Amino acid sequence: MAPGDDEQDPRYSPGSGDNLLGNSLLPGSALNGSGWCIFVYNLAPETEENILWQLFGPFGAVQNVKVIRDLQTNKCKGFGFVTMTNYDEAVVAIQSLNGYTLGNRVLQVSFKTNKHKS
């Protein structure tokens, strides 16, 4: 039985290497979270993601766009999020698009916060 036990030891070492490979995915995940999330409010019900790409794209690198939809109607609930890579570009986008009229609605654009208004 002792020779069989010896054979299992080398198989255990590569398992440690597999864990290291798994950890190599973390930097990619961290990168996704490093952007600047912008809250866009007062969107029309028919708003699609491509509208937000077109609005924010000219200001700089956009990582992600999300329109929040009603699950039953699939219409926009009136708000969405845009994630931009660069802080300075995000600030210019917010300053330029806050108060911008899209269709017949005036947009409210700001950095996303976790604070609740009191």
Automatic annotation (TrEMBL):
This protein's UniProt keywords: RNA-binding
Q: Name one Pfam family in it.
A: RRM_1
**Coiled-coil segments:** none
Q: Where do the segments described as Disordered lie?
A: 1-20
Q: What does the record give under GO molecular function? A: RNA binding
Concerning CDD domains, the annotation shows: RRM3_Hu
Any idea where the RRM domain is? 36-114
Give a yes or no for keyword RNA-binding in this entry.
yes
Q: Does the keyword RNA-binding apply?
A: yes
What is the name listed in the Swiss-Prot or TrEMBL entry for this protein?
RRM domain-containing protein
